[in-house]
Specification:
Structural class: mainly alpha
Order of helices and strands: HHHHHH
Distance between the termini: 23 Å
Largest sheet: none
Strand content: under 5%
Number of helices: 6
Length: 107
């Protein structure tokens, strides 16, 4: 979606590529953070049943990396998302805040 917005805005190719990379990295950060929340949060905090992934033996980042390893991976993906924008000169403001929120959210 972020790449389509940059195409519509007629952004130069390097900025479009940065937006595509941002979308991929922030999507991974979200998934990893979601796996951590499912493993560590309560149903009340999450607004959904916690621990569903483990209950169905779903392969998750937490299962592969452990909680702390998964948290670190989520942070690396968020950093990579922001770095992709910075390298191409795309203003990071709100998008950087979004990437950081994704890995620090509690629900």
């Amino acid at each position: 979606a972020s790449e389509w917005a940059s195409i519509t805005a007629r952004a130069p190719a390097p900025q479009r590529n940065a937006m595509r990379e941002f979308g991929q990295e922030v999507g991974l950060a979200f998934q990893v953070a979601d796996d951590v929340l499912d493993a560590t949060g309560t149903s009340e905090e999450l607004g959904k049943t916690a621990g569903k992934d483990a209950a169905v033996a779903k392969s998750t980042y937490v299962q592969l990396l452990g909680v702390e390893g998964a948290r670190a991976a989520a942070a690396r993906h968020a950093d990579a998302a922001v770095n992709s924008l910075e390298r191409s000169g795309v203003p990071t403001g709100t998008l950087a805040a979004l990437a950081r929120y994704i890995v620090t959210r509690r629900h």
